[in-house]
């Protein structure tokens, strides 16, 4: 009877030891799976970032090189349009250059979160910086879009005349730059979404 | 010697049982502490949202009621400026109304995350919707700011004349609306930051 008592009391720790042995094992498997999933998210993040760099650089450079000189001129005056003429376009070039520079500098952080999928710090930092960059990018794109709209259509109520009849090539280049900046805005929204999804689970 | 062996093997499960009894207790305490911290974040989220609603509504309504009729007129023409005259300002009013509406509708979700601090779903949804609303809000504010700048300063290169000398009150109201919209942009950035911080820890 006593030995039977002992055997039962010994069995309990044994089974609990087995359960203890299994629990960390299963936890490790789940951990591993989550690591794979998070690594996949990080790789998508990296690729999206490369795409956003291309879009931001294209926007800045197309706007920066947009000037057009008309083939006719008077004795005292040559008709020329350049992004320098409008302060909004200058802001656009500077802002998009800053955004592109930030994106290049954020690549190492993105690589860190590929190598260490469970580190929440780099992702959180990226999410916050991405939000600020998104705001800068959107404001540059929207302000330039408002001016481009005015250049295309003019406004009769305020007597602002459309200039795109005269400077067609200039207007086309500027419109292209605005479109590129909005592509980079969409990329930023997806980047923030990815970061949030990856941060959610520990 | 044998009984000594037994006594040691029995001691082990006993101590492990004590450790097991303690571990969930401490985990519960940590859980409780995190719940308090997360609830605090959610309450700040709620208050920030109320502030953003006020700013967005102020922006939409100030812009929407901005029209000015000059006290002199000719036989055929009365000089009048209103937000209707510029498509960008119409977009501003619509966008800020949508943002204010979204903010009001997001209050219940914010309350849910006060009541249930550990639910990650509502926070994630809020973060994503906030990002989209931030983009809309920023684009409306930046586009209106570009036009307001033009109305104040004009542009000699494109022969767009400043209209604020004539319509001073109109310009002041419009500028106020733009400032209010940027206050709501800042509130959104902080809302996203708070959501990200709260999502990070499970």
TrEMBL record, chains A, B:
Keyword vocabulary terms for this entry: Cell membrane, Cell wall biogenesis/degradation, Membrane, Transmembrane, Transmembrane helix
Residues annotated as domain Casparian strip membrane protein: 39-187
Highest taxon, organism lineage: Eukaryota
Example of a GO biological process term: cell wall organization
Location(s) in or outside the cell: Cell membrane
Listed Pfam families: CASP_dom (PF04535)
Membrane-protein topology: Multi-pass membrane protein
Leader peptide range in chain numbering: none
One cellular-component annotation, GO: plasma membrane
PANTHER family: CASP-LIKE PROTEIN, CASP-LIKE PROTEIN 1U1
Family: Belongs to the Casparian strip membrane proteins (CASP) family.
Subunit structure: Homodimer and heterodimers.
UniProt cross-references to NCBIfam families, sorted A to Z: A_tha_TIGR01569
Main function: Regulates membrane-cell wall junctions and localized cell wall deposition. Required for establishment of the Casparian strip membrane domain (CSD) and the subsequent formation of Casparian strips, a cell wall modification of the root endodermis that determines an apoplastic barrier between the intraorganismal apoplasm and the extraorganismal apoplasm and prevents lateral diffusion.
Protein name: CASP-like protein
Lineage of source species: Eukaryota, Viridiplantae, Streptophyta, Embryophyta, Tracheophyta
